[in-house]
Design brief:
469 residues; alpha+beta; Beta-Lactamase; Hemolysin E, Chain: A; PAS-like_dom_sf
Amino acid sequence: MSSKNIVPINEERAFEVQELFFSVTDLKGVIRFGNEVFTRISGYDEPDLIGKPHNVIRHPDMPRAVFKLLWDYLESDRPIAAYVKNMAKDGRYYWVLATVMPIPGGYLSIRLKPTSPLFAAVKGVYAEALSLERTVEKETGNRKTAMEAATGLILEKLAAHGFADYDAFMSEALSQELVCREAQLREVGYTAPTRFGAAKNAYGALEEQCCMLASKLTAVFSSTGTFKQLSEELSKKYQAIQELGPSLQFLALNARMAASRLGDQGVVQAAVADALGAKSKQAEGFIHSLIERMTPLQHATNKQVFDIAVARFEADMAHAFAAELKDAPPDSHCLRVRESLTAVTDELAKRCGAVMESMQLLDYETHKAQIDVQELITRIVEMKAIQLNGKIEAAASDAKSDFSVIFEEASRYIEGGRTDCGVLLDVLEVSSDEINSFRQLEPELQSDLRTMCDTTERAVSGGLEAVPA
C-alpha cells in the first residue's frame, strides 16, 4: 500500500522510550530489512516492507526539505541525524530521531523516541518550513525552488536557536536525546534484560558483549559535555582574541602620538608606548597561530561529539537487536537478518575506530592550542606590566587625561584577554584529561570490538551452536 493512499489520522502510534529500531536499505532507499520493533510500530507485515522504498512511511506533514538535507549528507558519504514524523499503515503518526549512515551497498538508519526539549522547538520549525514549501511551490510551480526556500528557512531558524550550521544542530540533538532517554530509563528503573554468563548461543554471547560495550561507550559519552564546553568557549572567545592584538597596537599608536605632543617631556611616555606596541606586535604572532587553530579545533570537537554519540546509540541498537535474535525462532534467522546484524556491528566497529582515530588528532590539536594559549598569557602578563607603567607615567604627565584614558582602555583589553585565555586554558586542560582517560581505555575497547566482530561472524554462520565454555 502506498502512503499516498493512506488517510492521516491525528493520533500518535505509541511506543516505549526503551524501544530502538532500525532498517537497512539499498543505495536507492529501498528497504532490505527492518527489525521487529520497526515492523510493529509501522504497522506493516515484513513482506509489505521488504523491497519497498523507505518513503512508504513518509508523513505528509514532513517538509521535503528535510529529506533533501538527508540525501545531501548521505550522497556526500556523511552520516546525518534528523527528526522525522512517520506515518504508520493505519494512518497514525510516530516521531523518531533517525540517525542514518552509509554502509557498503546502502544505508543503515537507527531510530529512537525523541523526548528532549529541542524536539518541541523542531516541530514548530518544521511546520513553518512545510507552510513555506507549499506556498512557494504553488506560486512558482517549481518543487526544487520550494525545497531550497524551506531548507533556507530551517537553517535560519536553527541559527536563531544558536546553531551555526546543521552539523552543530544534529550533534546537539542526538546528544540531548541520548541524555534524556537515559534519564527517563533510570527514572522508571528500566534495565536491559541481559543475563551475563547465561548465553546458550552466539546471539546470546553477542548480546552480552554489546551490553558491556554499550556500558563503556556510555562512560565515553559522558566526556562529550567537556568537549561541547570546549567548542562553545572556542566560539565565544574567537572574536575577542582576534581583536586583542590590533586593538592594543592602535592604543599604543595613540599613546605614542600623545607622547610626541609633549616634546622632550614625553620621552618616557613615548618609550612606554613603544614597549606596548612592540609587545602587542609579538603577541600578534601567537594570536594568529591560536586563531588559525581555533576553528579547525572547534570543527574537530563537534565531529567527535557527534561520532561518540552515534557510537553510543549504535551500541544500544546492536545490544537490542542481538537480544531480539537470541529469543527468535531459529528459522527466522534468514540471510537478510544475518546481513543486517553484520551491518549493525560492522558500522559500530567502524564508528568506534573513527572515534579513536579522531581522538588522536584532537589530542594533538588540543596540546598545540594549550601551548599557544600559554605563550599568549605570557605576553599578556608582560603587556600588563607595561600598562601599569603607562598608568603611572600618565598620572605624572601634563597630558594626564590623554594618557589615563589610553592606558585605562589598554587595561580593559589586557584584563579581558587574560580572562579569556584563562578560561580557554582551563577547558583545554580538562579536555586533555578526558582525552587521556579515553586513550587509556582504547586497548580494552579495541579488544571488545574484535570480540564482538568475531562473535557476529560466528552467529551469522550458524548462531545456534553452543557457546564454548
